[in-house]
C-alpha cells in the first residue's frame, strides 16, 4: 500500500516506472537475441575453420605432389642432377607431414576415404614408381623409364589422384557453403522473432502511455477551459471531483483558490490598469522626443567621427599620396558625395580620386587651367553647380535627374591655391551652411598639405646634403656632444664595414668599438678620441691609424668642433684614406735608397779604376782589364738611366714603337745565347711547341721584355739551376713562359710585382741589386703590343712569368713582288651592299688595310661572282632593294656547298636578328651604323685565326704583304 501511494502521488514516478519496465523488457529481449546469435556464430566459426584447415592441407598436398613430380622430371631432363632429386625427397617429407595433419582433423567418411587415397598414391609414387624410375635412369635404361610412364599407366594414376584432390576440395567448398546457408537461416529466424517480440512490446507501451496521457489530459483540459473563462472576464466556479493525489490534484486545488482571489481583486486591477494606460501615453510621448534627440546626437557623432577620421588621416602620415587618398575618401563620407577628386596645383598634378575612371581623371587634369577651375581661382571659395545627369551617371534610371557638383579650393597659409577639390552627389543639393562647414575642413586640409610641403622640402635638402657627403672620398661622421652619431656618409660605412642605418644613432662606445675592432693601433686611436671628444683637448687635431680589415689601409682622422651662437653642439670627424700617399712615401724612401746603391756601386768602380790608371803605371793587360770593367759599369749606368727614361716616357704616353711582323724564335735564341755565356751556373732550355711564332711588334722593345724576364730568372736563382723557356699557342694567343727554380715570390707580393720601384721586402732579395723598374717596363711594353704578362710562383720553389701576344699566322715577308701583280695574293673580299655610299665607304676602309675589294648590289650577280672567284671573305647585307635573292638565301646556298661553306661571312645590316645570322653560319654580325674600321679588324682577326690550306697574304704596316 505504501509503494502504491508513493507512485500515485507523483507523475514523474509513474512515468519512471513505465519507462523502467519498457527498458527492462527490451534489454532482456536484446540480450536473448545476442546470446542466441553468438552461439550460432561460434558454431559457424568452429566448423568453417575446420573446413579451411582441410582446404589448406589439401592445397599444400597438391602443391607438394606437383612440385615433386616437376622436380623428378627436371631430374630426368637435366641428366641426373642430384639437386632436383633431393628436392623430390624434401617434398616427400612434406607430403608425409601434411597426411598426418589431415588425419588429425579428419572427422567425416569423405576425409577418411581421401586420406586413404592419398596414402595409396604416396605408396605408389614415392615408394614404387620414383625409386624404380631413378634406378633405371641411373643405369641408363631410359626406355624402361618411358615404359613405366606410358605403358604402366603412371601418368593416368597421377591424373586420377589429382581428380580425387579436386573432388575432395569441391566437397569441402560445398560443406562450407551449406554451413553458411544454415547460419544465415538461423540468424534470419532469430531476427524475425526479435521483430515480433519488439512489435508486441511497442503495442503494450502505446496502450500504457495512452492511458496515462488520458489521466493527465482530461484534468488539464478542464484547467485550460477555466483559464480561458478567467481571461475573458467571465465568473466561474471551478470544482475538481477527481480526488487525485498527484501534482494535478494539487494544481486543481491551487487553481480553484487562485480563481477566487482573482475575482476578489479584479476591480482593484481594473483601476490600476486605467492609471497605467495614462502613464504609458505619457511615456510614449517622452520616448518620441528622446528618439528624435538621439537621432540628432547620432548624426552629430557620425559627422564628428568623419571629421576626426579626416584629421587623423591627414595628420598621421607625411606621405602625400596617402594623405590625398585619405582626403578624398573621408570628404566623400562627410559630404555624402558619390564621387570626388583632389588635385595638387603644382607641375606634378599629384591627385587622388574615388568613383572616377582613369580617363575621367586624365581629362580633368588636362583641362585644369580652363573652365570652372578658372572661376574657382577667381572666387577662392566653395561654390556649387547644378546640372543634368549624363547617361553614365543615370545608370538604369530613365527619368530626368540632376547632379550637384561642389568645387572647393585649398588655400595655403600664404593665400596660394595649393589644391582643388571637386565632389558630386545626386538628387541632393548643397546648402549654404554646409558650404561654410566644408570651407573650414578645406583649411584643415591646407594646413596638412603645408606641413607635407615643408617636410618634402626639408627631406630634399637632407637628401641633397647626404648625396654631397656621399660624393666625398673622405669618411665623415657628425656626432653630438655626447658622442652619439647623427649623420654619416657612405665612405665611413665602407671604412667601418657596416650599413648606414646601423651606424646612425650609435653611442660613442658602440661606434668606437666597431672602428677599433679592425685597427692595429687601437689603444692609441681610442686615447685620441677620448682626449678630443671627452676631455675637450685641442692640442692634437689629427691622428693616423692602420686598418687591417675590410682592407689594409692607412687612414688619417681629424676632428673639427661645430658651434652655433658660440655654443658647441657637435663634432665633425673626418677619416681620410692616405694609403696611396703613405705607400708613395715608403716607395720614395726605398727608391732613394735603391737608386743611391745602384748608382754609387758602378760609379765607385769607374772612379776607383780611373784613379788607379791615372796614378799608376800599369801593364797593358791590366789596363785593358780595368778599361773593360769601366766600360761594363758605364753600360750598367746607361741601362739604369734608360730604364728611368723608359718609365717616364711610357707614363707620359710619349714612347714610340716601330712595329713590324717578326719571328720571336731567333730573337729569343740570341738573348739565351748571350745569357748562357755569361752565366755558366745556369742552364737555359728553350722548348718551341708551335710553328706560328710570328708577332707584330717592335723588335727592340720585345727584346727588352725577354732580357728583363731572363735576367730576373737568373738573378733570383742565386744558387743556379735550370731555366725553361716555352713557346706555345693558347687560344688566339702566342705565349712565351720563363720558368726558374729560384727564390719564388710570396703570395701577398704578386699583385704588386708590376708596380714601379717595388721590390719584395726580405733579406734574400735585398742582397740582389735592382731598381724595381724591370717588370713595370715589361707590363707597359706588353700592353702597347695588345698583350699581357702573368706570373705564377711558389715560395722557395721558383716562378713562371708568361707573356702573351696576339697570334699571327703567316710566313716570310715578300717585299719584292712585281708591280703588275699588285693585287695578286692579297685578301680578296666581296661586298654585297645595295647602299652605294656605304659600299664605297667600306671599300675605301678595306683597301686602306690592303685588301682587294669588289662590290655587288644584286644578289644573283654576287652569288655568281662568289662561285667564280671564291673570295677569302664576304661582307653581306640582308635586305637588298632589287628583286631576287636576299642575304638569307645567299648564306643558305653557300653553306649548302662544301667548296664554299668555309668562306667567312660578315653580315652588315640594319636588321637586329643576330641569333638567326649566327645560326645560319655567319662569322660576325654587325648592326648599322658601325665604325668601318671595326669591319677590317674583324676580317683580319678571323683570317689570322684560320688555318688556311692555300696562301693568303696578310697586310703589313708599311703596305707590304705577308704570306
UniProtKB/TrEMBL annotation:
Annotated transmembrane regions: 15-36, 187-209
Coiled coil: 255-307
Modified residues (4-aspartylphosphate): 877
InterPro entries according to UniProt: CheY-like_superfamily, GAF-like_dom_sf, HAMP_dom, HATPase_C_sf, HATPase_dom, His_kinase_dom, HisK_dim/P_dom, HisK_dim/P_sf
Keywords: ATP-binding, Cell membrane, Coiled coil, Kinase, Membrane, Nucleotide-binding, Phosphoprotein, Transferase, Transmembrane, Transmembrane helix, Two-component regulatory system
Membrane association type: Multi-pass membrane protein
GO molecular function, one term: ATP binding
Name of this protein: histidine kinase
Species annotation: Metabacillus endolithicus
